[in-house]
Specification:
The structure is a homodimer. With about 200 residues, chain A is mainly α. Chain A is about 65% helix and about 5% strand. Chain A has two domains: about 90 residues, Arc Repressor Mutant, subunit A, CATH 1.10.10.10; about 100 residues. The structure holds a DNA duplex (28 and 28 nucleotides).
Chain lengths: ~200, ~200
DNA sequence: TTGCTCATGTAACACGTTACATGATTGT
DNA sequence: ACAATCATGTAACGTGTTACATGAGCAA
């Protein structure tokens, strides 16, 4: 139900075609929600069938025609009713492959775990930097007024500020965590000169 | 691909029936991975068809019979190859309903956002407490040696320690974040005596 | 000429959720 | 009497991913 409401929420601001929505997802709310183009097209089709949006073809000469979607009154109503009804559970369950891998870490061995943590760390550092100093989106899409507007609105919006802060705080916590794990791996069991205790031990 | 490897990993330790696996998921790795019973049964069926596990019926008199699954050699091989091949991307994309709701916070209004943050906070505090002082699982399943063993192994395992630490650090960061958001909501815009600036503003 | 951007879509598959059916035993 | 636990499963639906097809214009 969330992708559909993301779409309705974006269409609430302005009529858009699927491709533009995908760009918005990727550029402005990538760390909140993301979706594949095929998924967006499918969901837009469903929304149209349910009369929550309507579409019309906007012809273009040099480029492929656009199918531009607009939200309807019942779409607005559906979005509002989703937005205003607070769900009971807001702490979402986690399914994270790295965690699963770590859970079986003693079977994987120290080297593999170190490699995984190192990669994870560099990826989180990159996204932390991207959130701390967000690139100017408007500059990169000079002929796209939607992007410029979305960028400006989000920079000023109080709740978008909350989201940036959350991304910053969690990524910093994860950086600290991964660093501390790597330190512990280096400090203990690094020198295994004698053959008694190697990194991987078999379970009973 | 991850659920199947979670199953193979658990069966690596001991043969088990679907229901017991579900219990393990819920009690010991709930904050790492979770799955519905129907999903587990389906995946076990697929694994059996692909000869990565085998099953046999263990008759019981007073309770329904058990279908106990064991991992095969090719299952062990498949698990190992998954475990040892480090994927490129380890920082998983987030799809979090609360974040999406916050993104549209100015349309939802301050009261709704406050309610959402408050609920989120209490849920995260609860899970933080559960990780900080994990309940004794072995006590609650006195006739289940698998649970007792899983509990003991996980308490001693270095990588399970990493996982607990991660859950602690991220939940603490989220608690701080939600508290700071609620504070900001209370401090600013709490007294709106004059009608000039209300909490919700319409977009242009 | 190779590949990127813009643009729309289909098909198949993988993974996750919800509801339902069945039925004995045990605890409140 | 009612609910929970133990136990296995099916069916339908919802959501996310990957691969493919098509095609013009533009830049290195």
């Amino acid at each position: 139900m969330s992708l559909r409401n993301a779409l309705l929420g974006l269409l609430h601001a302005a009529p858009m075609n699927g491709y533009a929505i995908k760009t918005l997802f990727d550029e402005s709310i990538a760390f909140i929600w993301q979706a594949e183009l095929s998924q967006i097209y499918r969901e837009l089709g469903l929304l149209e069938r349910e009369l929550l949006v309507t579409s019309s073809i906007e012809p273009q000469s040099d480029r492929p025609n656009k199918r531009v979607y607009s939200i309807t009154d019942s779409g607005r109503a559906a979005f509002r009713s989703w937005l205003l009804s607070v769900p009971d559970v807001l702490a979402m369950p986690k399914r994270d492959e790295l965690m699963l891998r770590l859970f079986f870490g003693s079977m994987a061995g120290e080297d593999v775990v170190r490699e995984e943590l190192t990669r994870f760390l560099s990826q989180i550092r990159r996204m932390n930097a991207a959130v701390a100093a967000p690139p100017n989106i408007a500059e990169r899409y000079p002929n796209n007024p939607l992007m410029a507007r979305a960028d400006r609105v989000c920079r000023e919006d109080r709740y978008c500020g909350f989201l940036r802060k959350r991304a910053l705080m969690t990524s910093e916590a994860l950086i600290q965590w991964a660093e501390s794990c790597l330190e512990e791996l280096s400090s203990k069991a690094a020198p295994t000169e004698d053959g008694t205790a190697s990194s991987r031990e078999k379970e009973s």
